[in-house]
Design goal:
polypeptide N-acetylgalactosaminyltransferase activity, Spore Coat Polysaccharide Biosynthesis Protein SpsA, Chain A, Glycosyltransferase 2-like domain-containing protein, Glyco_trans_2-like
């Protein structure tokens, strides 16, 4: 956990320097809250301020690769009640080696203790074209795209969720029930 001084330095860096840098991107807006709201209420604030047809959630620890967004938008254009997650490649934390998931499609699942896991798709459920989308019982919570109106029809997130880790289950279960 950062010290009070580290938090102060970070807070200073996220004010004017961030605003100056983001001014280079006129379509990006910075939203600020008066107090720390936590992950879910902050995501809800961003979604409520969004004006586009699609809302994309991308956690700060995620890095988007080249052309990662068009396939997501394509799937939503075909069916607005689709929530789409990109393939999740990995950058090794020890040596920063990039490990692609291409051709090794995984889907979200959870164990009896409700821990999120990525498991291989069984051969009998794999499609001939590995780029074809597949259904997953649970999606990753930190990176996905969704039709903005569908997100709100689902009820958005429960603002009572206080900590990271349950949002992927909540939105996945809502989508399954209301679809």
């Amino acid at each position: 956990m950062p010290s009070p001084r580290q938090r102060q330095v970070l807070a200073e860096h996220l004010k004017k320097p961030l605003e100056d840098y983001m001014a280079l991107f006129p379509s990006v807006r910075i939203l600020r809250t008066k107090k720390r709201e936590g992950l879910i209420r902050t995501r809800m604030l961003g979604a409520s301020a969004a004006t586009g047809d699609v809302v994309t959630f991308l956690d700060s620890h995620c890095e988007a690769n080249v052309n990662w967004l068009p396939p997501l938008l394509d799937r939503i254009a075909r069916n607005r009640k689709t929530i789409v997650c990109p393939m999740i490649d990995v950058i090794d934390h020890d040596d920063f080696r990039y490990e692609t998931q291409a051709g090794d499609a995984m889907r979200g699942a959870f164990d009896w203790e409700m821990y999120y896991k990525r498991i291989p798709i069984p051969p009998e459920l794999q499609k001939a074209d590995p780029s074809d989308p597949f259904e997953s019982p649970v999606m990753a919570g930190g990176l996905f795209a969704v039709d903005r109106k569908w997100f709100w029809e689902l009820g958005g997130y429960d603002p009572g969720l206080e900590i990271w880790g349950g949002e992927q289950y909540e939105i996945s279960f809502k989508m399954t029930v209301l679809e």
